[in-house]
């Protein structure tokens, strides 16, 4: 597949009044890249996946159909001292991930993927191929965090590669309620965004059988951590800022950056080439719903206990909260530097996820996650209650089937982009006034 075929597909779709859906072959929470209630054509980019790395200039051109696992693998193949910052799950597609932000285990040190994009190639609504220079800074701004598919079809990204040491240190320490997890999670909220920028202390919360009381469930808190440096420095930092965790040297493992990518997603000892496998998503079967929130003030102990209660009401291990700390480099950018607005003032982001096997259980599980989301309202950001665009959630609002109104799109648009939404609408009005590139949550033009 090449760019001329994409241009032809755009011309044909326009001529016949069809919508196009752009699929990168990775993940899509709400399926907007391959389902629609209106007639549409899929442009599938999964064969546009070449990755060209320039170690001398510390840059890479990455086609939009690659996965982040492939990107990480190809960088590590060329250099032990260069890396890129993006998500943890290796089967995520580059196109959507980069254009929506791209948060990962090194974001407190290096920002998001979008913060490290220096050029892009995009095919616009007239079928023209544009780069940063020809598209102009407004459009280049919009596609780095505002979602590429509202503005055109991004075929490739040029990114800045990042200097890292040959070894990083990781650990995954689990604590249950019987081991003081409530107090640990409470304390974590006060330090996670303030520790050394090289340290990212991620936290996963699940309900499953207690190792201490057979047949009874408890909450497990998994402190899953990466430190861009050696074990002694890491121990010093954790013992200084979070002594309650009781971290010891035996909990920590020094490894290369690329080994850490595998460590966070696969069983210990899995070979690195697993990152090239596009079909290793953990939830191939069954159903899934995700939502997100931003937390600006620590949740009280009583608030946490309410979460535990709700986690115990859903099937064992079927739901998970993932708490990802902010601060560090994430706070160094202004909210308007890219469309991704979640900067200073956020302690952490929450990702809520629930999985289930059978279609007939859908109603029950969807109602559970919405109940949890309702419960969390008092503890999270307000006016707007913010959300992360890459954790797409149609519960936040959708466009009309025809040309949506600005007022209707603003309902969900403010949650993802805050005050950047208005600038995104202006860019859209300029580059795609007829709203050719559209879906249930695409940025609309102002209708003249």
From TrEMBL:
Protein's UniProt keywords contain Signal: yes
A GO BP entry: alkaloid metabolic process
Pathway: Alkaloid biosynthesis; nicotine biosynthesis
Cofactor annotation: FAD
Domain FAD-binding PCMH-type: residue ranges: 1-164
Cited function: Involved in the biosynthesis of pyridine alkaloid natural products, leading mainly to the production of anabasine, anatabine, nicotine and nornicotine, effective deterrents against herbivores with antiparasitic and pesticide properties (neurotoxins); nornicotine serves as the precursor in the synthesis of the carcinogen compound N'-nitrosonornicotine (NNN). Catalyzes a late oxidation step subsequent to the pyridine ring condensation reaction in the biosynthesis of alkaloids.
Family: Belongs to the oxygen-dependent FAD-linked oxidoreductase family.
Name of the featured protein: FAD-binding PCMH-type domain-containing protein
Source organism of the structure: Anisodus tanguticus
């Amino acid at each position: 597949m090449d760019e001329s075929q994409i241009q032809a597909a755009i011309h044909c779709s326009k001529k016949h009044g069809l919508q196009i859906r752009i699929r990168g072959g990775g993940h899509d929470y709400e399926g907007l890249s391959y389902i629609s209630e209106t007639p549409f054509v899929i442009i599938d980019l999964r064969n546009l996946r070449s990755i060209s790395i320039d170690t001398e200039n510390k840059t890479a051109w990455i086609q939009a159909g690659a996965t982040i696992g492939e990107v990480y693998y190809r960088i590590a193949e060329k250099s032990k001292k260069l890396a890129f910052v993006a998500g943890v799950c290796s089967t995520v597609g580059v196109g959507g991930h980069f254009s929506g932000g791209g948060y990962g285990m090194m974001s407190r040190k290096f920002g998001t993927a979008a913060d490290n994009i220096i050029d892009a190639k995009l095919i616009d609504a007239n079928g023209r191929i544009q780069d940063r220079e020809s598209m102009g800074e407004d459009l280049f701004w919009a596609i780095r965090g505002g979602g590429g598919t509202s503005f055109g079809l991004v075929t490739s990204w040029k990114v800045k590669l990042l200097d890292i040491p040959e070894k990083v240190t990781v650990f995954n320490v689990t604590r249950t309620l019987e081991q003081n997890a409530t107090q640990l999670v409470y304390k974590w909220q006060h330090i996670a965004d303030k520790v050394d920028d090289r340290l990212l202390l991620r936290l996963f919360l699940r309900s499953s059988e207690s190792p201490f009381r057979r047949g009874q469930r408890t909450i497990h808190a998994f402190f899953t951590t990466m430190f861009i440096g050696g074990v002694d420095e890491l121990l010093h930092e954790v013992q200084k800022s979070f002594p309650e965790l009781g971290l010891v040297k035996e909990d920590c493992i020094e490894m290369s950056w690329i080994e850490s990518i595998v460590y966070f997603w696969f069983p210990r000892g899995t070979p690195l080439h697993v990152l090239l496998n596009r079909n290793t998503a953990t939830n191939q079967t069954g159903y899934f719903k995700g939502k997100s929130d931003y937390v600006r003030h620590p949740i009280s102990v009583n608030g946490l206990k309410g979460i535990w209660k709700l986690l115990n009401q859903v099937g064992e291990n079927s739901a998970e909260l993932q708490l990802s700390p902010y601060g560090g480099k994430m706070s160094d950018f202004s909210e308007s530097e890219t469309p991704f607005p979640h900067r200073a003032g956020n302690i952490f982001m929450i990702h809520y996820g629930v999985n289930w096997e059978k279609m007939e259980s859908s109603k029950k599980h969807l109602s559970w996650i919405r109940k949890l989301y309702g419960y969390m309202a008092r503890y999270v950001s307000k006016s707007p209650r913010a959300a992360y665009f890459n954790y797409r959630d149609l519960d936040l609002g959708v466009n009309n089937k025809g040309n949506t109104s600005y007022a209707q799109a603003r309902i969900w648009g403010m949650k993802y982009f805050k005050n950047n939404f208005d600038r995104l609408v202006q860019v859209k009005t300029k580059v795609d006034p007829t709203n050719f590139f559209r879906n249930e949550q695409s940025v609309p033009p102002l209708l003249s």
